[in-house]
Amino acid sequence: MGSRDPVGATRGGVLLREALTANTLFATVAMYIKESQSLLLVVEGPDDYDALKDHCSSDLHLMAGTGGRAQVLSTAELANSRGLKGVRFLVDRDYDGFTGDSGVDDLENVFASEHHDLFMDLIVAEPDALYRVIYAHTRSARRRPISQGTRSIPNAEIIGDDARALATKLAAVRIVNSRNSLGLDFSRFSFGGLKVRDFDVEAMARIVCVRSAAPLETHDGVVKEARAAEKEIRGLGSAVGDHDLFSAIGRVLKRYEVNVSPETLLSSFLVAFSCAAVAALSWFSDLQNWCEQNLRAGMTCAAIPIGS
Predict the structure, then answer these.
(1) What pLDDT sits at residue 160?
(2) What pLDDT does residue 305 have?
(3) What Cα–Cα distance (Å) separates residue 54 from each residue in 50, 68, 270, 299?
């Protein structure tokens, strides 16, 4: 686990919740580097911090921002331009692979997830961890007697596949939004309230457009592009985001009268994936090499096969 946070700068590894600018985050990073012998890895937010905190040696301190990817990337650019050493930044790739934006790969002090985000990297690396979470939350329900009108619960793999297919439909709408800079408001969309008849990319696209108050004349265009995008990304783990996937799992489980919140599923996954999954991440060896070049230990995970 990483070293303790400098007093007044962070709380539990997560920067205090006020709206911080990149300059403020940069100042915090620079102060830490000046006062510490440890290397520093800055991640986007508290979920990423929680995922990695138990896998860092005492030589590698973990810090999380509160301004998301934009804040962390801007801080990385400042650190790069000012020659600040001893720090690396880890960000989610999001939809860069589908919009043609490769900016995160141009910064030598930035590591980016291979798939949409860190959690999706871990899920792709170790899908059995996700299936274990699903099974654990359906275990009690599986013991219920099947009565008229109730469904038998399929295995965890089927539930996971159904949820990924559902989340892929929303991912298609998100990609259309990113490609066209539409400014759609996805915070007003919820899988939890989605009717089964609306498990369709067209229905989701129209719901997002309506709740975003997008001009009516744009709706058909969004639907058409979203249909094409869904075909493009079907089966690609890189397209679906973690929050959408956990929300979709919760919605699929609701069909079987199992009520689990996305936050609970995410929290369960935090203790389900293995150290080997971390070691399998695309940026793991680059991070370890950087730490070794600075005569420091990096992460404590050994590069061993998952399941060994």
Answers:
(1) 97
(2) 59
(3) 8, 21, 10, 9
Sign of the alpha-carbon torsion through 234, 136, 62, 248: positive
Closest CA to 110 of 208, 26, 43, 35: 43
What is the identity of the amino acid at 267? S
Are the beta carbons of 250 and 262 closer than 8 angstroms? yes
Q: How open is the CA angle 283-286-288, to the nearest 5 degrees? A: 110
Alpha-carbon distances of 112 from 36, 51, 100, 198, 285, rounded to whole Å: 25, 15, 15, 33, 13
Overall average pLDDT of the 124-129 stretch: 96
pLDDT for 13 beyond 60: no
What order of strands is seen across the sheet that includes strand 39-43? Answer: 10-11, 14-15, 60-64, 39-43, 87-91, 110-112
Q: Are strands 39-43 and 10-11 parallel, antiparallel or unpaired?
A: unpaired
Q: Which two tokens stand for residue 108?
A: 């030598």
d(CA 209, CA 218): 8
Lowest mean pLDDT among 52-61, 126-135, 191-200, 284-293: 191-200
